[in-house]
Amino acid sequence: MCALKLISHTVPKVADKAFKRKYIALGRIVTHWQDIMGEKMARHAQPHKINYRKAKRKGDKPSATLEIACSSAHASLLMMQKGVLLEKINFIFGEEWITDIKFIHKAANTLNDQKPKNTNQTKALTLEEKNRLSQLLDKVSDNELKEKLSRMGQALITDQKN
Question: Which of 3, 47, 59, 127 has its CA 20 to 30 A from that of 103?
Fold first, then answer.
């Protein structure tokens, strides 16, 4: 006769085997986040999720994509550093385990040690900074694009000041 077991005893054992590596990996990424991103960028982006894909053919390695939550402006900057970020992440694991990075456009949570930004206290651009930004955007003929680039530039310059 077969003895019945409580599901609360069985599920953790099965789930542990299925999810052990996944959550250890995300935990390592979170604990080394400042080393991976750099102190300044770590405040503006955070690891969101890891998506795993099994190998399609025998002999192929499974792949994993790290999703990073950040604003659109920071995603643009990070996109250019994607290769370096992958190298840093995989250095932590000692193997090429994360194969891709995907940036999702939403504000990253603020860290506990950060002070919430008060928009009234942000430093305004100096006349020199405004002129320099204006010179950089003079050749852009599309007014809508020019306005968006101007706002992005102002935000980046202000962010560097804070």
Answer: 59
Give the pairing type, strands 63-70 and 45-53.
antiparallel
In angstroms, the CA 100 to CA 2 distance is 46
Residues 122-158: pLDDT tens digits? 568 889 999 998 998 998 898 888 888 888 888 888 8
> Nearest-5° angle of CA 57, CA 59, CA 62?
70
Q: Are 51 and 65 in contact (CB under 8 A)?
A: yes
Among 64, 68, 37, 66, smallest CA distance to 53 is for: 64
107 Cβ neighbours under 8 A, 6+ residues apart: 69, 70, 71
pLDDT single digits (tens) 48-77 = 888 888 877 887 777 889 999 998 888 889
Task: Determine the Cα–Cα distance for residues 30 and 1; give it in Å rounded to an integer.
Answer: 48
The CATH number of domain 10-110 is 3.30.450: no
